Prior knowledge:
Layout: H1 9-42, H2 60-63, E1 129-130, E2 137-138, H3 156-167, H4 173-184, H5 190-203, H6 205-216, E3 220-230, E4 233-241, E5 246-251, H7 256-263, E6 270-273, E7 286-288, H8 290-303, H9 308-329, H10 334-356, H11 364-372, H12 379-382, H13 391-407, H14 413-431, H15 436-446
Amino acid sequence: MSGLEELSREELIVVILRQEEAINGLSEQVAALCAELEKLRSEPPSGAAGAPPVWVKPSRKERGPKDRKKRKHSFARKRETPTEVVCHAVDICPDCGRKLSGGWVHDRRQVIELPETPVRVIEHVLVARRCGVCGKRHIPKLELSGQVVGQCRFGVHLMSVVASMAISCRMPHRVIQRTLEGLYGLKISVGAISEVLHKVGERGQGAYNGLLSQIRGSPALNADETGWREDGVNGYIWSFSTLDVRWFLYDHSRGSKVIKEVLGDEFAGTLVSDFYGAYNIYEGVKQRCWVHLLGDLKGLVEKHPDDKRVSHWAGRVKSLYERAKKAAKADLRQDKRVRLRQMFESKALELALPYVNFEDAPQRVLAKRIDGFLGELFTFVDHPGVPSENNAAERAIRPAVIARKVCGGTRSSKGSKTRMTLMSLFGTWSLRGQNPIRACKAMLATSE
């Protein structure tokens, strides 16, 4: 090969390693093709002359009609339990004018409708009475616990509906205002809506802090962050998620101090995150997101479509991950899982090392990432229950991204605190399959 005599010893080693990698890939393809050819040769010949080989699948016509799959139940729309029944019958014969009676049910049709219910304004009147014997005046004690929060003039059901509109439906305050007036005839100011949300957030502080304790005690925790604006100033929403908890925090910083404050000294589980450096401060077990890495591999291949070595290398990394996923799902002893993890880490290192110090290689950046985070890529293999990706945190934080596009952010630190509290509560209720309005109403009715 011309020009080899001008290369240094290190550059020659890189060339040899790249050629060895290409030879190994071609050897695997040749072995697979040989195995397939041997299998085809071992197949018995077809019985009829001129018939297609036995490995050729027959056409749909040759196979005949396919048996219909039995269903556990029909897919017909189920009838709702009626709350009101209206009977329709002809009382007089239209032909002869005779009066008709009796009859039988010929058909049914259900119509689902919402009642047009105006808002209820309940005025509690305290009547004072004087005893004619002792002359003392007696005034009844007004007991509204479970119906209102403190001295608020709005009931807990109305407050729960407003909070659900703002958080679950991501409706701006003025849209909530118009919706309440259109549905119930309730006229409420935008400022009153803000005060309702603040009041719900204050009453939910205990539950919010309880969720923080739950994530600190969880065996695995997904974390992510996204931008947010408070009074026009850039900040960040931090998301921490488990299988049944979502917890959010707003902070002006995107640094590692937030991770340290949130996790504290109590968290001893596995932290699942992307490759952002702020998560490096956690000294416990970590799992880095493979979805992010595979996405970057795909971008690398798209950036170098004509470089077969890049696509081949990316394919081998992806294949290694898929093998690790299968191993993680298998029913294996723990010592076997540990050995498999060590094997996958060794294979990943073999793929990364040839390009770590090769500055002109397109794979260099991702190879250095694999080398640098090698001990945090295959944690899911020997830690059952730990995901290989950070999708839980991505799904949890997506509603905040949509809300940011709708409202642009919050206007004060109090507003940010309220939104983080409500997002945590409503996100957790939805994750657990609870009705958010009913759960919020129960919290307001029982909170001290």
